[in-house]
Amino acid sequence: MTTIDKTVVVLGATGQQGGSVAAALRADGWSVRAVVRDVSNHRARSLSAAGVEPVRGDLSDPESLRAAFSGAHGVFSVQPNSGQAGADVTNEDEVRFGTAVADIAERSGIDHLVYSSAVTAGSTTGVDHLDTKNRIETHVRKLDIASTVIRPATFMELLVTPEMGLDGGHLSFLMRPDQAMQFIAVRDIGRIVAAVFGSPDRYAGRTVEIAGDALTGNALAEHLTQAAGRTITYSRLPATLMAQDEVLAKLAALVDDGRLAGNANLDALRAEFPFLLSFDRWLAGPGAALLDEALRSTD
């Protein structure tokens, strides 16, 4: 571990991306300040036990963000969105929160802002909870602050959530069985962000699409079958389901036109970030417990 006498403020540290960023920054020797609504809850206490300083803050309270950002070197910005299960935010909330974080970071003299966007940003998709990221990116680039935008591919973790049906021996997702789609392990998002903060001259002003692997539906089934020790089959989400759910239909169309399938240069990324996990390595490592839970979800 290196010793870095600088602080990075992490938003969303009790969630997947922010949590992985906080952990990776700590592993690299940064001081980390996590903005949380309640510093006394168990997630905040867990962060504290890991060497992260929880500070009270709320995305809807600019004064709390100003206090949290005071004296910090960097800010990692990620916001909840309406596409998340159980989300209590609107699309306009997300845009308001994301632009406010960037504005306050600029006014607070933050040296480096890293914003986590979406692989589809850069175009208008017609899916509101994706297009919010494009709006926030546009705002960030107008500010007088060194910034880096990362655009993560679809999370590997999404494929092994209990509701995906792996306990029944089958996976249905957005791409056709023979169609490739890119994925990334959440752990690797944190490691990439830590590398970005560690080399600001290299990454400031850049937008980086990130992924760790590209797999067809059939390849996903093969890897899952091997890891599970039992047969897992794959099919695209049923047409009847997509006919009933406009958002799912639009997401599938975005996979078909390539925008959600991902277009990261995997060879270049692996050369730049050698730690990137392929799906089979993720299943054997960080994803093993998640896969086991998914396989036993109805036991």
Briefly, what is this?
It contains 13 helices and twelve strands. The protein is of the alpha/beta class. α2 links the parallel β2 and β3.
Give me some keywords for this one.
single chain; 299 residues; alpha/beta; Rossmann fold; seven-stranded parallel β-sheet; three-stranded mixed β-sheet; globular
Summarize the helix and strand pattern as letters: EHEHEHEHEHEEEEHHEEHEHHHHH
Structural class: alpha/beta
Q: In what range is the share of β-strand residues? A: 15-25%
Q: What is the radius of gyration computed over CA atoms, rounded to a whole number of angstroms?
A: 19 Å
**CATH structural architecture of the largest domain:** 3-Layer(aba) Sandwich
Q: How many structurally independent domains? A: 2
Return residue spans where pLDDT drops below 50 for at least 5 consecutive residues.
Answer: none
CATH class of the largest domain: Alpha Beta
Continuous helix count: 13
The coarse overall form would be: globular
Q: Which percent bin holds the helix content?
A: 40-55%
Q: What is the count of β-strands?
A: 12
- Intertermini distance: 42 Å
CATH level-four homologous superfamily name of the largest domain: NAD(P)-binding Rossmann-like Domain
Biggest sheet architecture: 7 strands, parallel
Widest sheet: strand ordering: 3-2-1-4-5-6-10
Mean pLDDT: 95
CATH topology of the largest domain: Rossmann fold
